[in-house]
Amino acid sequence: MKRIIIITGASSGMGAEFARQVYTQHKNTTTQTEMWLIAREDDKLRDFATTLTGKNILVRTFAFDLRGSVGAEHVNNLLNTESKNGKFVVDLLINNAGFGTYGPFAETDPAREMSMVELNCTALTGICGFVLPYMQRGGHIINVASLAAFLPLGNFAVYAATKSYVLSFSMALAAELKERGISVCALCPGSVSTNFANVASNGKRREVLHGRDPRKVVAHCLRASQRNKKIALWATKWKVTAFLSRFVGRYIGARFTYLFNKRPH
Questions:
Q1: pTM of the prediction?
Q2: Fewest CB atoms within 10 A around its CB: which of 110, 220, 224, 226?
Q3: Which residues constitute the domain of residue 13?
Q4: How many CB atoms lie within 10 A of CB 260?
């Protein structure tokens, strides 16, 4: 039976790194395997896909906007269409698509904030729901959350809230799928060297401050997922921050970051 790997937000950043590393792991497989890469920018996605060369795994690209229930339905339609061509199993789903916005909520664009919720939360939820019927024992789901998931953050209010949702949802889903043998892992990285800050700051901050190597973050996450870990936290600093967040009041954390962690926007 054909095996399928699905990665969203796969044209750049950690999504592209997930695709590279997963492709390398499977390129010598003897099982019929396809990797579905999903992102908005068609040309960028196709160009990236050409870097994944080999004979034993087919890379397919799908360019569409994943935001909201409409975006998730695009994935559902792909699955339904594929099912008409024969049976298949989704071995790995990586929900990586998402973005953030910097700045106090009152100074950000409400439409952009709502768009973030639609992508970070609504689409991720729908995609999990649509993919699950095609998964079997031994399957894996990776949902990309954030270190921001552990505490409300001033100047990062909606993004932190969306990632808190992703973490909570992933933990509950892991508990529900335990008997089915499907693992769910929430990746909760701190600063990683991607284009995240450029997007979040509307170009005012080109680079992520103190960004870590995405190759190491992704490699650690894939190992954690294979070991059925529920949360992937690579850097020691991130683990300490996540642990200490338990002892900080939610309002205090939000107020402190609002006052002392200003972000260009």
A1: 0.96
A2: 110
A3: 2-260
A4: 9
